[in-house]
Amino acid sequence: MRLRKFMKPFNAVATKYLQKYLNWFLALEKLGTTTEKMATLAAIALCIEHRLDGT
User: Fold this and answer.
1) Among 11, 20, 39, 44, which residue carries the largest CB count within 10 Å?
2) CA distance 28 to 14
């Protein structure tokens, strides 16, 4: 249900980008009620970028 609620504002999400939306949703789920959300989000983003580069 939370995923459905998260996706509702986005109209006609292309399957090409679906994984990016799912990653975004999972990152926000992991953040939860963390007080240092920006730092945690930055760490997650850098980790994802690192994997995409293959390094």
Assistant:
1) 44
2) 20
pLDDT digits (tens, 9 = 90+) for 17-31: 889 888 888 878 877
More confident residue, 35 or 49: 35
Q: How far apart are CA 26 and CA 53, in angstroms?
A: 20
Cα 22 to Cα 27: distance, rounded to the nearest angstrom: 9
Q: Which two tokens stand for residue 6?
A: 């998260």
Query: Measuring CA to CA, which residue among 2, 3, 28, 26 is closest to residue 13?
Result: 3
